[in-house]
Amino acid sequence: MYTLYYSPGTASMVVHLALLEIGAPHELRLVDFDADEQHSAEYLQLNAGGHVPTLMVNGRALTESAALLMILAERHPEARLAPPIDTPAHDAWTQWIVYLSNALMSTYRLWFYPADLGSDEHDPAIRAALQKKIEGVWDRLEAHLENEGPYLLGAEFSGADLLLAMLMRWSRNMPRAASEWPALNRLANLIRARPSWQKLYEIEGLSGW
Fold it and tell me: Which terminus in the chain has less CB density within 10 A, N or C?
């Protein structure tokens, strides 16, 4: 039994999706951001960064959404969230997850939390630079999916696509949403049609894109 500490629509989303894809028994524990529960003494004992997700695995608290996706994929190979180890496809899968984590998730953090840069609001030049960096990632992914898609690994779905779809969703209120790139939008539609995505929306009370 896994226990996932989550908040709807946040970085915990990809771990929740992975658990639903796997079909593994799990319990959800809501971390109420409005009540600042992520910074409570109890939660900080599990996750010193005060972030979600935290996943309890055999009594151990593990963090970092991309890492948790990789851990779950390797613990449950039958779910085929990752290609078999020691294959070129697995190497590509690892590469894409690390790229999405480094290139997008860290930049999004600065986009959504200007206080991390020491300000209540972004300087317009900084905001423009962050937007340019994020859209540059979409450009790279669009070119890859146009030539190699519809999924990141080609014809086969993997957990990396769950991570990408979550990150695309986060762009929905940006000046240019990721869904405006055609190949990216095609991938998003494929993921949104999956039962795991629809079940997560029901459980987490999400709507729209």
Answer: N
Cis, peptide link before residue 182, omega less than 30° from 0: no
Q: Residue 54, SS3? A: strand
> Rounded distance, CA 44 to CA 38, Å?
7
Write the pLDDT tens digit of every residue in 62-86.
Answer: 999 999 999 999 999 999 999 999 9
Condensed to tens digits (0 to 9), the pLDDT of residues 158-177 reads 999 999 999 999 999 999 99
Residue 56: count other Cβ atoms within 10 Å of its Cβ. 17
**At which residue do the structure tokens 């929306």 appear?**
201
16/28 Cα distance (integer angstroms): 9
Whether 198 has a pLDDT exceeding 90, the answer reads yes
Listed in order, the ranges of the chain carrying CATH 1.20.1050.10 are: 88-194
Which superfamily does CATH assign the domain made up of 2-80+197-204 to?
Answer: Glutaredoxin (3.40.30.10)
Q: Is the pLDDT of residue 209 over 90?
A: no
Tokens of 184: 């990216």
pLDDT (mean) for 123-130: 93
**pTM of structure:** 0.96
Opening angle at CA 52, ends 46 and 55, nearest 5: 55
Which residue has 């000046």 as its token pair?
Answer: 175
